[in-house]
Amino acid sequence: MMTLKESTLVLVKIRAHHGNAPITDLEARTFHEELLKDATLPDALEAVRRFYSANDTGRWMLSGDVNAGIRAIQTARIPDEATIGQLMDQAGIRSEQALAYRQKLIREAKQGMPIQQAHALAVEAAHRQAIEAPKPAKPRPKRYHFAGHGQSQIGAMSLKDTLGGAA
């Protein structure tokens, strides 16, 4: 996640294309709130560069455009299904571990981590996520309700004490 200072730097780069208009605190905070939570500064700056290198309309780049550019950059880093399958076979990932493996591999690859390093982390995550049989519940001792406020448990007192003089 980018800091407010980093997202403001992205906004400054956008404004540089339109005459360096001053940025208010509200604009900076709003822009920061609207960016993807997993955005990184290099990806955001690259998204701005790509947008303006292809922009022939003079339209301003908005936070949604930055997010779309970041998504495109991150999606391009994800290995294809065949590569993921080969990596899983190579590591001996079982079907019950596949989901944890894929999620970790894709998450790390999207953030720009090299595939081999992401693969190593994903293998660790897959082995940690192995589902174990539930442990049996420990038997709990029986508890009885109390008769009255501050009284002993029913059955611990004599019948005469429980019923009073009627017994």
Assign a percent range to the helix content: 55-70%
**Cα shape:** flat
Number of helices: 8
Q: What's the pLDDT, averaged over the residues? A: 86
| Element-level helix/strand string | HHHHHHHH
Largest sheet: none
The quaternary structure here is: single chain
Task: List segments where confidence is low: pLDDT < 50 over at least 5 consecutive residues.
Answer: none
What is the first-to-last residue Cα distance?
Answer: 75 Å
Tally of domains: 2
Q: Please report which band the strand proportion falls in: under 5%, 5-15%, 15-25%, 25-35%, 35-45% or over 45%.
A: under 5%
**Radius of gyration, CA atoms, in whole angstroms:** 31 Å
Instruction: Give the class from helix and strand content and strand pairing.
Output: mainly alpha
Number of strands: 0
Describe this structure in words.
The structure is a single chain. By secondary structure, this protein is an all-alpha fold. It folds into 2 domains: 4-76; 78-128. It is 59% helix and 0% strand. The chain has 8 helices and no strands. Helix 1 runs parallel beside helix 3 and helix 3 (41-54) crosses helix 4. The chain is flat, with a radius of gyration of 31 Å. The N and C termini lie far apart (75 Å). The mean pLDDT is 86.
Question: What's the helix and strand layout?
Answer:
Layout: H1 4-16, H2 25-34, H3 41-54, H4 63-77, H5 81-91, H6 95-110, H7 115-128, H8 159-163
Helix pairs in contact: 1-2, 1-3, 3-4, 6-7
